[in-house]
Design a protein that fits this description.
Blueprint: H1 4-8, E1 11-16, H2 32-40, E2 42-43, E3 48-52, H3 59-69, H4 92-95, E4 96-100, E5 107-112, H5 116-124, H6 140-151, E6 156-161, H7 169-184, E7 188-192, E8 205-210, E9 213-217, H8 223-233, H9 235-242
Helix pairs in contact: 8-9
């Protein structure tokens, strides 16, 4: 029997739109994880899902595409966010069809660590009683966490790209706790990350991207967890190998 959370999650699946024309020879379409989505689609689980993998495995490409397909600004923000610096995203988002759960309105937001400066500037420019005027006055991490608290609320579909980038160890633990709270509120969250700390969230789904495409895995089996364990146990061995 399916759980109530699985039945009520905002987004059930993304797949290639039947009318989309895709250049399968384009750089982004040749990434194994992206090719897997184009060929087979991707079911989005309820709760929190982490996308993990090496640089170039397609984590950011996929999470940006999920944002664009859902109607969010791929540089961060909500559906109505009108800001852009330089368009670097692939056209994957325009080629995907989103299968939603009908009958309930869902909030949505995308936070992308590398483009938060532009997002802050846009938010500060909005007229009226603006709660976002102080974002540039805080550290990168403080502003990121405050924006997360303001915009990620209740039932909805939320996306993050490498949110650990501006955060200390303690702040990352705070983010992990916040992800647990969002899940308890019925939110569906997809996070692209390199963090072994975030991916330790109990009950989360971990999707590993790589040459194999996309596969579900467990935290203890992640290469990044094994690498960090080895480094922390014997940093001198790693450094000696690097000639440092």
């Amino acid at each position: 029997m399916r759980s109530r959370a699985a039945e009520s999650r905002p987004i059930r699946r993304v797949e290639l739109d039947a009318g989309a024309e895709v250049d399968r020879g384009a750089w982004w379409a040749t990434i194994p994880a992206v090719r897997a989505v184009l060929d087979h689609g991707l079911n989005i689980p309820a709760g929190v899902t982490f996308l993990v993998g090496e640089n170039g495995s397609g984590k950011s490409t996929l999470v940006e595409a999920l944002a664009a397909a859902h109607g969010l600004n791929p540089e961060g923000g909500s559906r109505g966010a009108m800001h852009s610096t330089r368009v670097t995203e692939s056209p994957l988002g325009q080629a995907l069809r989103v299968i939603r759960t009908p009958g309930r309105r869902a909030n949505a937001y995308f936070l992308r660590a590398e483009t938060t400066h532009g997002l802050y500037t846009y938010l500060e420019s909005l007229p009226g009683d603006n709660p976002d005027l102080n974002l540039h006055e805080q550290s990168h991490g403080e502003g990121f966490l405050e924006l997360l608290e303001r915009k990620f609320r209740g039932y909805g579909f939320y996306l993050m790209d490498e949110p650990e980038a501006p955060l200390s160890f303690t702040s990352t633990l705070g983010l992990l706790s916040r992800l647990g709270d969002l899940r308890a509120d019925g939110a569906q969250v997809v996070v692209a990350t390199h963090s072994p700390l975030l991916t330790a969230l109990p009950g989360a789904t971990i999707l590993e991207l790589g040459a194999h495409g996309i596969r579900r895995t467990e935290w203890a089996d992640l290469d990044i967890v094994a690498s960090w364990r080895g480094f922390l146990a014997s940093p001198e061995a790693f450094l000696r190998h690097l000639g440092v």
